[in-house]
Amino acid sequence: MIRGFKRQTEPLNEYELNTLLPILVKGLRRHVGRHNPVISRHVVSQMRGRYNLSEARFRKIINHIRREDIIPGLVATSEGYYIAETEQELKDYEMSLLGREMAIREVRESITRQRKNLYNKPPKQTVINF
């Protein structure tokens, strides 16, 4: 769970695992190839009314699908989610993830540096006049 995002990042519940996951897996398996993506907003809006699913929880289920190898090759681009058809598509997605990972690391390291500069200063010397 990520601090400040408790609901969005908490583990999948029984409803999400037993009801939503099978529906999403079935639907995502139809989106093979870069030419046939689906965007999360579309999936969530199509399910609204019948199922309780937010875009944040959709992403959490996608994360579960990937980590558990339920749909091998499931990638995402600005065009949406789809199953890669070639090794090169997967390599490209890996490189995209690596770039994002490095960018997040740089920000984290900057925040660490800023925190230390702001809050780990030695105490000011008090001058006592006699």
Task: Give an overview of the whole structure.
The protein is mainly α. Helices cover 56% and strands 6% of the residues. The chain contains five helices and two strands, in the order H-H-H-H-E-E-H. It has a two-stranded antiparallel ribbon. Strand 1 and strand 2 (80-83) form a beta hairpin. It is elongated.
Mean pLDDT: 92
Q: Give the total of domains.
A: 2
- Measured between the Cα atoms of the first and last residue, the distance is 56 Å
Strand order of the largest sheet: 1-2
The string of secondary-structure elements, in order, is: HHHHEEH
**Secondary-structure class:** mainly alpha
The name of the CATH topology of the largest domain is Arc Repressor Mutant, subunit A
CA-atom Rg in angstroms: 22 Å
Described by strand count, sense and barrel closure, the largest sheet is:
2 strands, antiparallel
Percentage of β-strand residues: 5-15%
Assign a percent range to the helix content: 55-70%
Anisotropy-based shape: elongated
Number of beta-strand segments = 2
Please give the CATH architecture of the largest domain.
Orthogonal Bundle
Number of helices: 5
Q: What are the low-pLDDT stretches, counting only 5+ consecutive residues below 50?
A: none
What is the name of the CATH class of the largest domain? Mainly Alpha
